[in-house]
């Protein structure tokens, strides 16, 4: 996501045991859709920003996603959450969807879609540090080296060009998005164990959309003047990366362990880079590619240390 947010923290869900009656092709097909849709969201943001502000884009994207998820909730008779969980759900919705998407959209005004994907992938390193600091989770030597590599990679990406030492404000704003999605991913664990991936994500997206409602009037009025391709990008992100991808991700988690499925999410920034090159003609600088490679190496090392 749009992260999109990206849940890479290994979580043992009640439904994570493999089901032998389900065809393996269906599971891998669903995982492929998740990777493709979430990677394409970075390109969708770049296109959407041609007609909408970062806040408008965030609201409209998840307004569309909320409608799609509402239809699914009605059809499947999804129960409402326990009222005692509402404060936590709203807090995580505000952090993991409202703040995350506004910050990511704002950062992508000056940072390319492909590079943004690499910065967001540093989420794995941030989660590892937060988990070690606040939840006393053990992170071995290889894991700490991975964290250091993630931070070093993001630092490289933050340089605006290859010839001068100039920090990119857009990259720093995207790091705010990275921290917000990391906090969301870490704190969602008890809700996932209680409600499951799709059900809780539906609640959180609704909550995040409600938090953005103060900007609804301005966003809806902008539709008439916005280019059609920007509006189509908004609809695409709401339906596919915003709703179908989360439904597919829930299906994947129901049939293979979450720790195994999460490992495949590391290819998202690579796919985002390829999609950005194919559809936007974006060619990242050499230093950005080097930084992205360092981030990915760090992510792999952190995953292996678990």
Description:
The protein has helices spanning 24-48, 54-76, 86-107, 113-121, 123-134, 141-157, 169-187, 189-195, 197-211, 216-222, 228-253, 258-263, 268-280, 286-305. The protein has 306 residues and is mainly alpha-helical. It has one domain. Helix 4 (113-121) crosses helix 7 (169-187) and helix 8 (189-195) packs across helix 9 (197-211). 52% of the residues are buried.
Percent in helix: over 70%
Counting helices, strands and paired strands, the structural category is mainly alpha
Low-confidence stretches: 2-20
Question: Which descriptor suits the 3D outline?
Answer: globular
How many strands, which pairing sense, and closed or not: the largest β-sheet? Answer: none
In short, what is this structure?
The chain has 306 residues and is mainly α. Helix content is 72%, strand content 0%.
What layout of secondary structure does this protein have?
Layout: H1 24-48, H2 54-76, H3 86-107, H4 113-121, H5 123-134, H6 141-157, H7 169-187, H8 189-195, H9 197-211, H10 216-222, H11 228-253, H12 258-263, H13 268-280, H14 286-305
Helix pairs in contact: 1-4, 1-11, 1-13, 2-3, 2-9, 2-10, 2-11, 3-7, 3-9, 4-7, 4-13, 4-14, 5-6, 5-7, 6-14, 8-9
What descriptors fit this protein?
306 residues; mainly alpha; disordered N terminus
């Amino acid at each position: 996501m749009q992260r999109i947010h990206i849940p890479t923290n290994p979580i043992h869900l009640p439904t994570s045991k493999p089901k032998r009656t389900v065809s393996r092709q269906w599971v891998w097909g669903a995982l492929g859709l998740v990777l493709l849709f979430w990677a394409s969201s970075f390109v969708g943001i770049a296109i959407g920003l041609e007609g909408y502000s970062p806040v408008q884009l965030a609201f409209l994207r998840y307004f569309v996603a909320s409608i799609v998820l509402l239809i699914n909730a009605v059809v499947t008779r999804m129960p409402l959450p326990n009222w005692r969980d509402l404060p936590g759900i709203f807090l995580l919705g505000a952090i993991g969807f409202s703040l995350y998407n506004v910050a990511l959209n704002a950062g992508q005004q000056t940072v390319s879609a492909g590079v943004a994907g690499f910065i967001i992938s540093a989420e794995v390193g941030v989660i590892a540090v937060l988990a070690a600091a606040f939840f006393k989770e053990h992170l071995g030597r290889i894991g700490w080296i991975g964290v250091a590599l993630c931070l070093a990679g993001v630092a490289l990406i933050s340089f605006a060009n290859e010839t001068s030492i100039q920090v990119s404000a857009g990259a720093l704003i995207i790091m705010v998005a990275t921290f917000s999605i990391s906090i969301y991913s870490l704190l969602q664990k008890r809700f996932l164990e209680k409600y499951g991936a799709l059900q809780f994500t539906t609640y959180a997206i609704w909550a995040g959309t409600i938090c953005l409602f103060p900007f609804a009037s301005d966003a809806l009025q902008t539709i008439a003047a916005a280019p059609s391709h920007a509006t189509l990008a908004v609809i695409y992100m709401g339906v596919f990366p915003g709703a179908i991808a989360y439904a597919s991700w829930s299906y994947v988690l129901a049939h293979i362990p979450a720790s195994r499925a999460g490992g495949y999410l590391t290819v998202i920034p690579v796919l985002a880079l390829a999609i950005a090159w194919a559809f936007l003609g974006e060619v990242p600088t050499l230093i950005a590619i080097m930084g992205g490679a360092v981030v990915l190496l760090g992510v792999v090392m952190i995953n292996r240390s678990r």
